Amino acid sequence: MRKLSMDELNRESVEDFKNKKKIPLVLVLDNVRSLNNVGSVFRTADAFMAQKVYLCGITGTPPHRDIEKTALGATESVEWEHVPDTLELVKKLQADGYKICAVEQAENSTMLNDFQPDPGQKYAFVLGNEVFGVEQDVVSLSDVVLEIPQFGTKHSLNISVATGVVVWDFLSKTLGQEA
What we know:
By secondary structure, the protein is an alpha/beta fold.
């Protein structure tokens, strides 16, 4: 087996990527402190073709070298917007037909492996601050609270890792519905 070269990967141009149909998913970052985490979320959004990334509250925005260090150009390919208030954004997204899924550990949460996306439904995944998680008022307003099953001693994942896990899970289940 031989690794593929960068040329053999046939990467699309940013313009072609922007014009491509995206999966029915937006990512909402609720007061994320680490600019490296923000950049990583952009890369995940690009890799799995999310529609948009919302950067809320104190979450840093491009252009910034620490975001770019991990985004590797994905801030140019992924649509994004800064919104001052996460709760107001969640209300707007719900009014626009999105099902809001807070990624958090909470009473009566749905384990990610038990979550089945509804075909044709638009989703917004809300991921929270590295210390405090998703704000309680946002959790309370969410349609679903998704929890990633964990079996170690830490019971938490870095936000960029959690984003990759939930987006891949969503995409794999959505693709499975189309088969």
